[in-house]
Amino acid sequence: MTAPPSVLITGCSSGIGRACALRMHRSGMTVYATARRPKTLKPLADEGIRTLRLDVTDEESMREAVDTVEAAHGAVGVLVNSAGYALSGVVEEAGLDDMRRQFETNVFGLARLSQLVLPAMRAARSGTIVNVSSIFGRYAVPGGGVYQASKHAVEALSDALRLETAAFGVRVALIEPGPVRTTEFGATYIANFKPVSEDYAEFRSRTAEYFDAIYTGSRRTLAGTFAIQADDVARTVERVARSPRPRARYPVGFLAHSTLALRRLAPDVVFDNLFVRRAFPVPRNTGRRPVPRVGPEPRQPRHQGDKS
Ligand code: NAP
User: Fold this and answer.
1) CATH number (domain holding residue 115)
2) Is 119 strand, coil or helix?
3) What are the pLDDT digits (tens) for 134-158?
4) How high is the pLDDT of residue 307?
5) Range of the structural domain that residue 71 is part of
6) How far is the CA of 84 from the centre of ligand 1 (A)?
7) 215 is catalytic
8) How many domains does the chain have?
9) Can you give the pTM of this predicted structure?
């Protein structure tokens, strides 16, 4: 019988990372739960889970964590990249430093940690990298453009990596949850949306209400009604970790399955107007200044006698 794989998980102070650590530990895997603030891992340590400090923006902490697991197991069996947060706000007003920080955590952290575990995984001709993306890795809506760009980048990196490492027995899979009721994630999203222009103020308050409904469990919106729990995502992550041939991507939850199917089938104009504009808050022109109608140029009447 083969030994259960060792699992290294990022972002275990709360939410999906923590749910993965608990679920996979309870199912008999050797879990290394990590977070940038080790004291947040105490409840997991009390369950008997091994804990390590790991900040995905700190190279040394990533190296040390990988070295620890490799010293005990030869290679990381499964890497679950879950650490991440969402920068909110309209693209026009996103600060470049905030955008860089978003990519530093959600994209470069995940990419660098994958680079660090890969040599030993390749040598072992085995291993799985599970990247927690989002439905927003496949489409974008107003107010989350930078976060959604970071998840699109995660999808592209994962697609390339999957094909690059398959020959060496290393599997790469994407997890694409719809809204997940994780309090910290929602609180961060709402808190960091601070519009500068009055034009976006009303949109900001509707966005806050919308996300509040998801994370407080209100059924006022589609997303609030169908939001899932962190453990629903963890169940899928565990399934992927145990699979000898995981699929490339795993939507999680009804909203993920349905909206990603629509995204595949609908042209942009239909997707925007029939889905995004109805299901998500979108900025409105609430000021007094009218917006000139934008549309195709009117056809010029043909000049009489023009034979062309
Ligand atoms: P969460 O409860 O806020 O958990 C995010 C985790 O990432 C926390 O442990 C946080 O640690 C950690 N983190 C942030 N920056 C880090 C860094 N530099 N180094 C290490 N850890 C860091 O949110 P969640 O919902 O579980 O999110 C987990 C993943 O799921 C994210 O990648 C997110 O994009 C994705 N996702 C979430 C949803 C959703 O609706 N919640 C939907 C789709 C996808 P601290 O406590 O130290 O900040």
Assistant:
1) 3.40.50.720
2) helix
3) 999 999 999 999 999 999 999 999 9
4) 46
5) 6-183+228-258
6) 4
7) no
8) 1
9) 0.93
